[in-house]
Structures are given as structure tokens and as C-alpha cells.
Amino acid sequence: MGFKPLTKNERHMMDILWEAGRSLKAIEILELAGENRDWKDKSLYPMINSLLDKGYIEKADYVPATRSKAHTFRPTITPNDYSVMMVKNQTDRKSIGYIGVSLVKDSEKTEKLIDELKAIIDEYEQKSDEESNNDK
Fold first, then answer.
1. Does residue 85 belong to any structural domain of this protein?
2. What is the pTM of this model?
């Protein structure tokens, strides 16, 4: 999937879906958004359709609703995946390493973060080795 930026309101909707941890009906999204949202009720379905078109959500189930049945929606990516796509889209490949180093330098828990990064790299290298062994 190519990077397609989220609008501020789409990001708010994605945050609701990510935090819910389950698929939601449109009315549930509206209820969880509460009154502290920058979008009107009538914007709900156009935003859902936009997120569907961008590939960031999908229809999950068709469940009973008040008068009939309603679709539920769930994210197709994680917040971390979206953040990575955003960084990759806005920087050249060479800069990504420098960004990582800067984040580590600015962290209050540098040692813990370095250990986590090492574990991620080790896991990646292990998967790469397994894949290359399977190709032989």
C-alpha cells in the first residue's frame, strides 16, 4: 500500500478504532468521538468511505443494529505502521537512520530503548537468515 496521508479528522477516527481494539459500528465511532470532535455527524460516512478507499480500514462484520443490520469497521494497519509509512514518505532513505539516532539521544530511557532496538534488529536478522535458508 502506498502512503496516503490522513486528514486531522481521519486520524481522530483511526485513533478511536485503534484504541477500541475491536471492530466498531459507525454509530459507536460517533459515540466514542464524543462532543470534542472537529467534524459534524454528517461527515461520518464520507470519512469512513475515504478511509476505506485509502485502505486503512475494512468492513469487518454485518451485525444487528437498531432497525436492521450495520457494518462494523476495523483498521487494516497499526498506529506504528502508519507512523513508519509517514516517516518513510517524508524523508529520504539515508535520513531514517539519523532520525532513529536522534530519537534515542532524546530519550530519557536510552539504555532500555537501545536494548529494544537491538532486539528488533536481532529478530529482523533472524527472519532474514531463515528466509535466505529457505530459498536454498
1. no
2. 0.70
**Domain range for residue 104?**
93-134
Question: What own/partner pairs with CB < 8 Å and gap ≥ 24 does 22-28 have?
Answer: 22/74, 23/60, 23/61, 23/72, 23/73, 23/74, 24/72, 24/73, 24/74, 25/63, 25/65, 25/70, 25/71, 25/72, 25/73, 26/70, 26/71, 26/73, 27/65, 27/70
Per-residue 3-state assignment (H helix, E strand, C coil) for 21-43: CCCEEHHHHHHHHCCCCCCCHHH
Q: Are residues 70 and 110 in the same domain?
A: no
Percent of the chain with pLDDT over 70: 92
Q: What is the pLDDT of residue 106?
A: 67
